[in-house]
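REQUEST FORM: STRUCTURE PREDICTION
Request ID: SP-0412
Submitted by: Lab K.M.
Chain count: 1
Length (residues): 157
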Amino acid sequence: MRFPWLSQLHTLLDSAPTVGRLLDLCEENYWQLMALAPGLASARGLMKSSRPGQMDLYLEVLEQTPYTTVIHLTYYFSHHEGQMPDPDAVLRLYHDAAQVEVIDLRQSALPLIAGYQHPSLRNRWKVQLFLSKWLAYCRHQGHRFDPSPELLTEMEG
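STATUS: Completed
RESULT:
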């Protein structure tokens, strides 16, 4: 099997999370993002990672403070209505605590959130778990954002 974690995803989504396991997963996601984008703590603007035969991955720094970075991470799929982002995540990285908070996540691969659900421990677990698997997939594809990225002025169409 190419991605063995897919068979385990349903079990992980249904498992009972604890606060400690959630914090561990948030930390794991932080280090995965730092491996994907080593210079993220000081990056600015929009960056693109291109791999032969793969979708381009876009990372945009929305906000940079001494202890946090807010980013937008997505793929853009061509659609008859224009460019469609999916998955589409806004994330806050806490560099001092080595944690990632999911501010917003929109995706169509898994039914993580159907309508509004308050930010319960289970919902946060599911979203962080999805992010973990997506980041692992991006790294498996060889995506990486150069520590000194060339900024993109506009999206390529």
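NOTES: The chain has one domain: 5-140.
Reviewed by: T.R.
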